[in-house]
Amino acid sequence: MTVTQIQNIFQKLFTRMSVSVSLAPIGVRGMKVLDREKFLRNVSVPVLEVTEDKLAKTTPIVKPYFLKLENFKPVQNYVTEDNLRRKRIFFNPEKIKCWSDIAENHRLTLKNYDVDESNFTFVTLKLTYDNFKFDIIFKAVLPENEEIVSSFSQIGHIIHLNLREHLFEYRYLIGQVLLDKIKTCRTVVNKSNIIDNTYRNFKMEVIAGEEDFLVTVKENRCNFQLDFSKVYWNPRLCKEHERILEFLKPEDVLFDVFCGVGPFSIPAAKRKCQVFANDLNPDSFKWLEHNAKSNKIDMTRLKLYNQDGKDFICTIFKDYVTDIFNGKKILKNEAKIHITMNLPALAVEFLNSFNALLSIEDLSSNIKCDIIVYVYCFAVGEDPVKISKEKVIENIGYDISKDIIDVFNVRTVSPKKEMMRVTFKLSKEVLFSKKLVQNDEPPIKKLCV
Questions:
Q1: How far apart are CA 317 and CA 335, in angstroms?
Q2: Closest-CA residue to 104 (of 54, 45, 63, 61)
Q3: Confidence at residue 199, expressed as pLDDT on a 0 to 100 scale
Q4: Domain limit, last residue, from 165, 193, 212
Q5: Three-state SS for 33?
Q6: What is the distance between the alpha carbons of residues 150 and 145, in angstroms, rounded to a whole number?
Q7: 281 a known binding residue?
Q8: Does the annotation list 241 as a binding residue?
Q9: Is 309 annotated as a binding residue?
Q10: Statement to judge: residues 406 and 328 lie in one domain
């Protein structure tokens, strides 16, 4: 009996008596400056040694037990002491501690191919920083029993994090790990949850990589370029953009009140809708123009504006629908008018602009086209649907309960905070009503005599 065989016997005995082997890094808890050398460790792992001619039959059977690590092949070449070529199939020690841990039906099938416990042994495997995924590293390094980095957004080559306060002192390590592990990443930023209400910008700190904020993203068959430090873009809204675009038909009209760099407007124009796109942020407007050109949009179908949302509604939208109601403009094929208001922190506050927007003189015929509004808001509380409806009704200044088509949960922002979309028909009762909300200007003070 060789020394290697004796070692294998003792390894098998020890493994049967031991608890499940953990593959996680050890001794790195609380690390704030990344030290890759400290992730080195040796682990005893089970392997199945088979001849090359048996590999094709054996592999499909034992695939559920494979050892899956970063930069590691679970099937490797091996040369025995007798200079014979073999294949080693590495098993996950967290699943397999001994031969009997392999399911009985799998063991019986292996035996039919002359593979049994004699082919089963243990080897010592050297693990390095390169073998661990970023989530495993974060679990080993960051504080126990606290929320770790569970999710992030990637916009082009930029990874965007919203780190909680207890992780702030680890931010440079977190950034470097993500830079190492995600091949398409060149920049990692930590951004606060506070958005500037005027231009929807975040406060931002580069915590790893290059200070390069110019990105290109692809969405709904369009390419969007933008400066991520100056304009708003959330990749988690891609599906929502797609949902709204599905509601639009060729020859429909879209008024995009807070359009950003054009994720609603540019694909809509490409689908042959007539689009009026507006954003107050001059940087968003600049990239909106750029993206319209780069996507070869027919500019007769896309009109761009750099106005406050209220001014856009009270001028551009008002003039258009007045012409429709007076018969000066005719919508083709019974097209609809759609209004998107994607500024969830503030959009509902602009709904009052629709209340009594038109005077009765503007109406010379019945309103025949549907006007559909998609307004977004944040709902904090136990019943986000009810909260969203109440916000819309309160801000529009009219009970539109009967006109609400849908209340949709777009995404969860944080515990008990949801981003909601309320879809409703904008009725003539709202457009031609007397304002139920008082004028924004304070009353003139009376002179005291």
A1: 16
A2: 61
A3: 61
A4: 212
A5: coil
A6: 13
A7: no
A8: yes
A9: yes
A10: yes
Residue 130 assigned ligand-binding role? no
Half-sphere exposure of 78 (CA within 13 A, CB side): 19
Q: Does the annotation flag 156 for ligand binding?
A: no
How far is the CA of 236 from the CAs of 155, 338, 379, 388, 421, in angstroms? 10, 22, 18, 20, 15
Give me 13's structure tokens. Answer: 């005995």
CATH, residue 251: 3.40.50.150
- What is the spatial distance between Cα 142 and Cα 233, in angstroms, rounded to a whole number? 29
Q: Where are the alpha helices (DSSP H) in 307-409?
A: 309-312, 318-325, 384-396
Helices then strands, counting H and E runs in the chain, come out as 12, 17
Beta strands at 302-305 and 274-278: parallel, antiparallel or unpaired: parallel
Partners of 50 in the beta sheet?
87
* 187 Cβ neighbours under 8 A, 6+ residues apart: 157, 158, 159, 206, 208, 209, 210, 211, 212, 213
Helix (H, G, I), strand (E, B) or coil at 229: coil
Closest CA to 6 of 127, 124, 100, 121: 121
307: left (phi over 0), alpha (psi -120 to 50) or beta: beta
CB atoms within 10 A of CB 400: 21
Of the residues 188, 212, 236, which one is the last residue of a structural domain? 212
In order along its 449 residues, the chain shows pLDDT tens digits of 554 555 555 555 444 444 456 889 999 999 999 999 999 999 999 999 999 999 999 999 999 999 999 999 999 999 988 888 999 999 999 999 999 999 999 999 999 999 999 999 999 999 999 999 999 999 999 999 888 887 899 999 999 998 989 999 999 999 999 999 999 999 999 986 555 546 656 678 999 999 999 999 999 999 999 999 999 999 999 999 999 999 999 999 999 999 999 999 999 999 999 999 999 999 999 999 999 999 999 999 999 999 999 999 999 999 999 888 888 888 887 899 999 999 999 999 999 999 999 876 555 455 678 999 999 999 999 999 999 999 999 999 999 999 999 999 999 998 889 999 999 999 988 998 754 444 444 433 333 32
- Consult the annotation and say whether 227 binds a ligand: no
Report the alpha-carbon angle 442-360-248, nearest 5. Answer: 95
Backbone angles phi, psi at 113, to 5 degrees: -100, 20
The parent domain of residue 324 ranges over 247-432
Q: Are 355 and 396 in contact (CB under 8 A)?
A: yes
- C-alpha–C-alpha distance, residues 212 and 110, integer Å: 54
- Mention every residue, 6+ apart, whose C-beta is less than 8 A from residue 365: 325, 326, 327
- CATH number of residue 36's parent domain: 3.30.70
Give pLDDT, residue 415.
Answer: 85
Does 218 fall in a domain?
A: no
Give the residues across from 218 on adjacent strands: 223
